Amino acid sequence: MNAPVSDPPGGRRVLPIAGGPPAERADAVRNRRRILAAAAEMIATRGADALSMDEVARAAGVGVGTVYRRFRDRASLVYAVIDDREREFQRDFLAGPPPLGPGAAPAERLRAFLHALADRTEEQADLLLAAETDSAYARFNDGSYALYRMHLAMLVARHRPGADAVYLADALLAPLAANLFLYQRRVLGMDLDRVKAGLDAMLHGICPA
Q1: pTM for the complete prediction?
Q2: What is the four-CA torsion angle of 136, 93, 149, 48, rounded to 10 degrees?
Q3: pLDDT class for 188, splitting at 50, 70, 90?
């Protein structure tokens, strides 16, 4: 039996924006900024594949233990580098104007979300690839993915009551894994409009008008 996906009494479901760090000491804030700046510089100059926790520590002027205390692995560090753009994207689909934000029909919001996520993936595909492939389940362990799934499952359940909304949410997100996205864009030569048209076709099969 499928778990229901519904709004709380009296209002719209409010989903948390992922990635907000707790208040920190001034020295901890400085260390975090140094680490992120060093990681961003390394990625910009040498590519995400060259990112090394040891080298980031040396470039930031901190101990490697400090890096690992702040970021448990390379995937966490890469996600922190891309976090600002992710926060903006989450604000847009949680509280921005329709059709991406609240106020449009579920099917319209689903389509707007998939197109916006395709644009978001296009912007930082190499960084997302590095983060998502750092371990077998890195993509699914990230808080952003859980938020995407919850958001899409909520919309699917509104459009198709009784459907396996969580499974269908995963199915809608699968084509936007960074490795498949980059393969289609760079190896197969698909342009972004073609990718979005494919997402529309899949969405129509899952949530027909």
Answers
A1: 0.71
A2: 0
A3: very high
